[in-house]
Amino acid sequence: MFTLAATLIAKTAENDGGFHPPSIFEFFPPVVLFEGTPFALTRIHLIQIIATVALILIFWLGTRRMQIVPGRFQSVVEMGLDFVRNGIAHDLLGRKDGNRFLPILTTIFFMVLFMNITGIIPGLQIAGTSIIAVPLLLAIVSYATFVYAGVKKSPSGFVRNSLFPSGIPVFLQWFVALLEFLSTFIIRPVTLTLRLLMNMMVGHLMLVLFFSATWFFFFTAGSWWSLLGAGTLAFGFAFTVFEILVAVLQAYIFAILTAVYIQLAIADEH
User: In terms of pLDDT, which residue wins out, 6 or 66?
Assistant: First the structure.
C-alpha cells in the first residue's frame, strides 16, 4: 500500500511539473556498476564501501605510529576507543569480559556510526544503514556473539536457563518458555535490525522532504512562497543537526544492547 501510494505521488509530480516528494524508491536506486552480475552495485552500496574504507583509513592513520604524548589526531581516535572500552565494554561486562568482547563491540559501534553519518554528508546524503543488509548483518553478528558467550559460559545450561527461569510455577513453565524463546531468540535480532533501519530511513526521508520543499518554494513557486521556503530550509538545517545526534545515538544503542545481551548470557545463573 505504501509503495503504491508513493508511485502515484511520484507520477503525479512528473505529470504536472510540481513538487516531487521523497518516496520509498529512494532506497532502491539503479545499478551504477557491474549491472547484470552478482556484484552489481548501487549508489547506496558505493556509500557503504566509502564509509568502510574511511573507517579503516582513519583508524590505521590514527594508530600506526602511536606516541606516548599523542597528537590531536591520535587523541581523537583514542577518545573514541576509550569511549567504547570504558563506557560500554568495561562498564557492563567488567574488565576481563569487557576486553574479551571489546573488538566486536568497537567494530559494531564505529561501523554503525560511520554508516549512519553518511546520511548528512553532502554528495552522499543517504545512510549506509538505510537498507536492511547492514542492520541485519550486524544484528546477526550481535545475536551470534550473544549465543556464543552463553554457550561458552555454560554449555549444558545456557538454553535451559534462558527458557526456564528459576522460581516459575510448574504449570506456567512451558508458557514462560515460549515467551522467553520469542523474546530472547527471535525478537532481539529483529528489533535490533528494525530500530536502526527505520530510524535511518525516516531521517533520510525527512531531510529530502525539507530540502526538496525548499527548492520548490524558492525556485519553482517563487513570490511569497519563498517565505515558506525559508521555513523549510531552517527546519532542514535543524533536522540535520538532529540527524547527527541520531546517528551517534543509534550506534551507541546498538553497541550497548549487544553488550547487555552478552552480559545476560554470561551471568552466573547461566
Answer: 66
Q: Quick one: average pLDDT of 249-269?
A: 90
pTM to 2 decimals?
0.86
Domain boundaries, the chain: 20-265
> In angstroms, how far is CA 225 from the centroid of its own chain?
36
